[in-house]
Amino acid sequence: MNRDWTLPKAILRRELIGYFSSPTGYVFITLFVFLSAVAAFWRDQFFMNNLANLDPLNEFIPYLLVVFIPAITMSAWADERRNGTDELLLTSGVSSGQIVAAKFLVTYGFVFLMMAVSFVYPAGAIARGGIGLDHLFSVFLGLFLLGVGIASIGLVCSALTRSQVLAAATTVGFAYLFYDFGWAHGFLGPHAAGFFDNGRVAGAD
């Protein structure tokens, strides 16, 4: 059986409007950009010995993503179920696969936009110094993929409840659980916990 996986423009437009039809999307992007800029430049070690030190970005932005992205994805499906518009979507002649794909694609696009704008200031500072753009791209790619992972969790959690608050709280919990395996030290041996927490055996050089 052939399946049509092309995404109707009307569905994509509907999902985009959901993010930008109210000030919420713009407020989230502005606040995220401000906080990520603070994280990058607040401490003096952004430039150390004429080299770009991106440790502040790697240290703080993941936690911003753990908080911001669940707030973005919490209404993706929960609102549909609460308002009954999910039934309208399913009877609109568009396949459920297309609807799901559109929600994921637009959400990933929103995360990319949020991340891209937040990296304008670090990129500008580094480019002006003529150093570290390849390193910056690697950091951006890693954080973007982390954001995509959290967004995926958020969309699944939103699909399982009518409550935006419950969807957001569940996403934060799972995202933090998978991002920071420090909690594993209390349940696993030091070697196993070190493997999950640091990507290597604890205590190894």
Overview features:
205 residues, mainly alpha, two-stranded antiparallel sheet, 2% strand, globular
Short description:
With 205 residues, the protein is mostly helical.
Description:
With 205 residues, the protein is mainly alpha-helical. The protein has one domain (9-198). The chain contains ten helices and two strands; from the N terminus they run ααββαααααααα. The chain has helices at 9-20, 23-41, 55-73, 78-83, 85-90, 96-118, 120-129, 133-159, 164-179, 190-198, and strands at residues 47-48, 51-52. Strands 1-2 form a two-stranded antiparallel sheet. Strand 1 (47-48) and strand 2 form a beta hairpin. Helix 2 crosses helix 6 and helix 3 (55-73) runs antiparallel to helix 9 (164-179). The longest helix is centred in the C-terminal third of the chain and has 27 residues, at 133-159. Mean pLDDT is 77; it is low at 199-205.
Task: Record the SSE blueprint.
Elements: H1 9-20, H2 23-41, E1 47-48, E2 51-52, H3 55-73, H4 78-83, H5 85-90, H6 96-118, H7 120-129, H8 133-159, H9 164-179, H10 190-198
Antiparallel strand pairs: 1-2
Helix pairs in contact: 1-6, 2-3, 2-6, 3-8, 3-9, 6-8, 8-9
The poorly predicted ranges are: 199-205
**Which range does the strand content fall in?**
under 5%
Overall pLDDT score = 77
Largest beta sheet, briefly?
Answer: 2 strands, antiparallel
Radius of gyration: 20 Å
As for the number of domains, it is 1
Count of DSSP-assigned helices: 10
What structural category do the secondary elements indicate?
A: mainly alpha
Number of strand elements: 2
Kindly report how far apart the N and C termini lie.
Answer: 54 Å
- Element-level helix/strand string: HHEEHHHHHHHH
Helix content: over 70%
Strand order of the largest sheet: 1-2
Quick one: overall form?
globular
